[in-house]
Amino acid sequence: MLEVVRPGLATTVQDLGRPGYYHVGIPISGAMDRLAARAANLLVGNPEDAALLESPFMGPELRFADARTVAVTGAEIAPKVNGEPRPLWTSFRVGKSDLLSFDFLKKGARIYIAISGGIDVPVVLGSRSTYALGALGGFHGRKLEAGDLLPLGAGAGASEGRTVPEHLRRMPEMPAKLRVLPGLYWHRLTEEAKQSFFEDTWKVAPEADRIGYRFRGGRPLTFVPREQPFGAGSDPSNIVDAAYPYGSIQVPGGTEPIALHRDAVSGGGYMMLGTVISADMDLIGQLQPHTPTRFVPCDMAEALRARAERRKLLDAIRAHLAA
Amino acid sequence: MARTESRYSFGGDEHLFVEIDEEMSLEAFFKSLSVCTAIKEAGIRGVSEICPANASFQIKFDPDVIAPADIEAEVRRIEARAQASHRIATRILEVPAFFRDPWTTETLMRFRDRHQDPNATDIEFAARINGYPSVEAFLAAFTGSPWFVSMVGFVAGLPFLYQMVERKRQIQVPKYLRPRTDTPALTIGFGGCFGCIYSVRGAGGYQMFGITPMPIYDPQQKISYLQDFMCLFRPGDILVWKPIDREGYDAIKADVEAGRFVPKMAEVTFDLDAFERDVDGTNRKLLEALHA
C-alpha cells in the first residue's frame, strides 16, 4: 500500500497504454515519455509495462507501508527519502513508513516514479492507465488526491544503485526540436504558411497537458482560399470532422498549433498540417510551458531512421540493466 | 457528386489517413464504413486501430511490423476490391431529448461572449439562420427525421450525427466563435452539419440545444445497458429523437438510477439506394420498425 500525502499537480497512474478503442473515442493514454517510463520500471526490476506514477512539473509526497525499490526518471526533480536526497535514474530502497518527497523542478516536465511490484489498480480494457477526461482506468479514473491509498503488486524489487548512465537518457534540446512529417491537410496551407511554420520559433503555451500541447508566438498560418466543402464549417481551418492521429498538429483558426498526445481527442473538425514523428513524441512530454520550440520538417525515411535509433537506445538501456 | 478517388496521406510514421471525400455525404460515409470493415476482416499484421470517420478513415500501424508503403498498398487493394456496400444491417435507437433545458441554458448564458449572437440562445440562433419562423418549427425539423451515427469519438463514446434528409433540408450551424471551457454531460450539440451528444462534461464548440437523461458512456459499467461495453453507440447506428419535457426527463433519470431504464432499440436493414429514391418513405419504415 502506498499513501498519497500530497498529490502534486496532476499525478496519474500510467503504463504503456490502452490501444484498440480509439474508434470509439477512447485514446491510448499511458506514459507521455515512454522511454523514461520503461527505464524506471527496468531499474526497479518490474516488467516495462508495469503501472507507475507520472507527475508533471512537481513531485508528490508518498508514504510507504512496506519496503520497496523505487526509481525516478524523466525530468530533473530530485527525490528525497525522509528528507535525504537520492539520485535520479537510479534505483534506491525505501523502508516501511518512509516518506518519498521531491525537490523543485530543474529541467524537463514529467517524472516517472516506478515502485517494485507496480501500482496494482484494476486493469480496464487491457491497461491500468488513467484517462481522466473519460474517468477511466488508473485510480478511480482520476488524478491522485491527498489521502488516496494505492495498492501495490508483489515483487521482490531489484537491488539499490542500478543506474541508467547519462548518455542513455533522452531530454529535449534548447530550443526543443520536434520533427514533423507534413501531410494530412498540409495542402490547405499557403506556400508562405508552409515556410513560416517551420521557420518560426514557437513557445509552449500554458495549455499543455496529456491531451495536447498548444504552441504560441509564430506568425499566423494562412489557408489556400476555397469554397468550404459541405459539412466542414465556415472557417478555412475547418474540415469535415475526421480522425486525429496521435502527434497530429491542428491549427484552429490558423493561430495556435496544437500537437495531440496520449490522451488525444480522437477526432474533430480542424485541419491538421502534419504529425510529430513517433520518435519525438516522448520529448513533448518533457516540455515545460514557455519552452521555445522549433518544428523541423522530416520525410518518412528519416522518421523511420529516428524510430530505429530510439529503439536502439531502448535496447542499450535494457542491455545495460540486464548486465 | 462523390469523388471517385480517395486521397491517401500518412499521419507521421504510425498512421495512414484516407480521405474518401472532402465533403460529407452518406455515400462517402458508407464507403468509409465498408472499407474499414474489409480492413478489419483482412486482419493486416501490425494494425492496432481502425477508425472510420464521417467521410474518411484512419489506420494506426506499427511500422516495425509493416512498412508504410506496404500498408498503403494493402489498403489500396482492399479499397479497390471493397464493394461500397449500400445495404447495412444496423440498429435504430430512440434517444429522449429535453430541449431548452435549464442546464445547457445556464451554460450557454455563461459563454455568450464566445457566440455569434450574444442576444439569442443557441437554438434561437440556429432556427433563425436556417430560415425557420420559430424554435418550435426548427425542433419539428430537427426531430422529424432519423440521424446516422457517422463517427464515434472526439471523447469516449461521443456520437457524431448526420441528418437523414436531402441536402437542401439539412440543418447547418457554425460552431462557437471560440470553444467553451464547459459543456454539461449528455448535452445535445450541433456544429457544421453534425449533431452530437457530449458523452462527458468538458470543453466544446458545438451549439447546445438540449440534454438527454439517457447515459451513453459509463466507465464504471454500472448502467444496466452498458455492462457489455461502456460506450452505447457504434458507427452506422441510426438514432431517433424523442422530445420530452421536464417531467419526462426526471422520470427517465429516476428509471436509469434504479436500473429500470432500457433504451428502445430495434434491428433494421438500411438501404442507401432505397433511401435516395424515397427519403421520407424509407425513414417512415425505419420508425415503424422501431415502434413495432
Account of the 3D structure:
The complex is a heterodimer of chains A (323) and B (292). By secondary structure, chain A is an alpha+beta fold. Chain A folds into 2 domains: 2-168, no CATH class; 176-311, Cyclophilin-like (Cyclophilin). Chain A is built from 4 helices and 18 strands. In chain A, strands 1, 2, 3, 4, 5, 6, 7, 8 and 9 form a 9-stranded antiparallel β-sheet that branches. Chain A has a 7-stranded mixed beta barrel with strand order 10-17-14-15-12-11-18. The longest helix of chain A is centred in the C-terminal third of the chain and has 23 residues, at 300-322. In chain B, the strands form 2 sheets. In chain B, strands 5-10-8-9-7-6-11 form a 7-stranded mixed barrel, surrounded by 5 helices. A 4-stranded antiparallel β-sheet of chain B has the order 1-2-4-3, with helices on one face. The model of chain B has no long low-confidence stretch (mean pLDDT 95). Chain B is globular, with a radius of gyration of 20 Å. At the A-B interface, β13, β16, β17 and α4 of A face β1, β2, β3 and β4 of B.
